[in-house]
Amino acid sequence: MSEIKPPTAKRIPHPHTAHGDTRSDDYYWLNDRENPEVIAHLEAENAYLEAVMGPLEPFREQLYREMLGRIQQTDLEVPVQHGPYFYYARTEEGKQYRIHCRKRAASRGELEAAPEEVILDLNALAEGKSYLSVSVLKPSPDHRLLAYLQNEDGSDRYTLYVKDLQTGELLPDRVEDVYLHQSLEWDATGEYLFFTRVDETQRPCYLYRHRLGSPEQTLLYQEPDETFRLRLYKSASGRFLFAASTSTLTDEVRYLEALQPEGEWHVFTPRQRGVKYSLEHQGQHFLLLTNQDALNFKLLSAPLLSPSPDHWHEMLPHDPGVYLQGVLPFAHHLLVYGRQGGSTQVWVWDLIHGTYRRLEWPEPVYTVAPADNREYATDRALVSFQSLVTPRKVLELDLNTLQTTLLKQDEVLGGYDPAEYAQERLWATARDGVRVPVSLVYKRSTALPAPLYLYAYGSYGISIDPTFSPTRLVLLERGVVFAIAHVRGGAEMGRGWYEDGKLLKKKNTFTDFIDCALHLVEEGYTTPERLMAVGGSAGGLLMGAVVNLRPDLFRAVAAHVPFVDVITTMSDPSIPLTTLEYDEWGNPADPEFYAYMKSYSPYDNVEAKAYPHLLVTAGINDPRVGYWEPAKWVARLRELKTDANTLLLKTHMGAGHGGSSGRYDRLKEVALEYAFLLDKVGLRD
Description:
With about 675 residues, the protein is an alpha+beta fold. Among the domains are: about 40-65 and about 425-680, 3-Layer(aba) Sandwich (Rossmann fold); about 320-415, Beta Barrel (Lipocalin), CATH 2.40.128.660. About 20% of the residues lie in helices and about 35% in strands. The strands form nine sheets. An eight-stranded mixed sheet has the order 32-33-35-34-36-37-38-39, with helices on both faces. Strands 3, 4, 5, 6 and 7 form a five-stranded antiparallel sheet that branches. Strands 8-9-10-11 form a four-stranded antiparallel sheet, with no helix packed on it. α6 (about 505-520) crosses α7. The longest helix is centred in the first third of the chain and has 18 residues, at about 35-55. The protein is globular, with a radius of gyration of 25 Å.
């Protein structure tokens, strides 16, 4: 390997000065993707990766084949009732993408005999394309048309198409620059589509109405605050459309009767900084979930005819131990979902009988949530359940009796007995005394200490819950312990858990991860020589921070699309999503936030010292983390690090934040990561 020379990025002085402080950024030139030298450098890094990983190619292929052998390649999702049809998606062996279908049936019992109608075959759409994403599919109210969003470059700019499901032809109605999700809804008549479009920074901030068959695209609202984005959704009842202006700290929701598409949108309650809320509808009331005077949220109702705060009624008061995250209404029931004790929970409220009960589950570590539910006038709901050892189940829940019927459990091929695996919930004590949960799974026959794969995210209040992965079995079968550190910055322990890991408390995320790693070492699960760490996006920032803080604690690290150049990005409002992030990271125009960011920003804190083995990925079209961030970080690491450990950069030259779009291509990316990490901890076959 010694004869393989890594690419060396040239250095061009580019100082940044703010608040009397100057930061050097000699690799700033990599920001210019129109510069042929930039593309040549990225391609040279890709070639270097393939050269270094060349000896591991048989191992990569073996891992890929093993993972593929665990997956049911030809599979069928649970059909979901929506009006006169049951909608579902299926996959076929050898095909990269899903096939969306439906069957006309009055009940689930009639499905087997009902003929299948393919409404959108993504494999046909992907022919001749290196990337394809279809993010939203919305049948019209009469089910004759299908509106969907399609993207071919990995950005957040999608194109809206409308397909006639009777003829199979596309209507001339076509709209560019629609946001990738929570951005498309029909009115109740089926004559109008509502959608949100993005600005030049890919911020969804324009709400439009379009009448089918006409050139009309009426701008209804433009969100003026650059720290807010728009999201569009329809109530579970179908009666209302909601357009939510939302930021990290604050929400403001507009609503419209879906039967009155040309009517006036009304603001439910004006935005107040620090007050978040969301709306749903049931019967004669709006349902309001809000954190006003309630850190972990409370549930209120508001009469449709007089929804002012004077008429709000408290349904579920604030409980410091229960984090309410959502409510799914049915005609006579509510599914309330959230978190308690560090785990996801679902409660059923029977509004006829006045009972409010939490669903109970037989495992100590699990993830439960409402599944896809599209019928309002029903007393049956779909719920999903899984754990680190139990493959995902979709259950039909009787909302009256709370009895469940198993509709489907994901099949694991190649032989799988959950009794051979142990899952645990540990609690690591952070340096400030806070107890941080850690979920882990391993094969019972594994001799400890063992190689350990430690994953975390820790930002935006996003929780990383314990779920099942058939591809993870290639790790467990090789004697690897898999663990999730539920660090602050997520919301595993409630909204306060998030608040304690953002802005001027962001370093808690990094030190929590380190303290969880130390706990796993102290408890005998692993050793630093066998410890692997993985994170992506904001979790990639976490990886960058911890290898600066404790490079000696980890043997190998994978940082996917890492957000590592915090100050430079957050100082540039022209970069997609920067302004939306001020309430997450702070605005470096403020000297206090500038100094704090500089103290942890991975790119700004690379030092002349030894680092672990590192695999870094990027996406050339990534709108969330510019490809140049990981590219610059790797260049500076190559310049300064004093070790001979492997440092690799893989840039997806035709994709964005999520990497490859095809399922087999994604699996090959996992095989690359696993081969890299396992080789470094001595588990290369």
